[in-house]
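User: Okay, second chain of the day. Same drill as before: sequence in, structure tokens out.
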Amino acid sequence: MTKWQKDVAVALALYALVAVVIRYSSGGTGWGTALLVALVATPLALWMGWLRRRLNEQAVEWGRRRVRPWPEERRR
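Assistant: Same drill. Structure tokens below.
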């Protein structure tokens, strides 16, 4: 599978999972409402995952480029 096919598969799986969870976890929520809410929640969840991954990558880069030694290393 190519990267975009994996991304589409993950997005569809997440959409289906969110729709099923909303449908069966809320009292009286119909399939139409669950699918509409999942349509909003899926891109938000994907964006939050992307943002977390990007912030972690930047933190690793910042940690490697730190010029001053950490306080624990200075005391040695």
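The longest helix spans residues 31-64.

User: Thanks, on to the next one.
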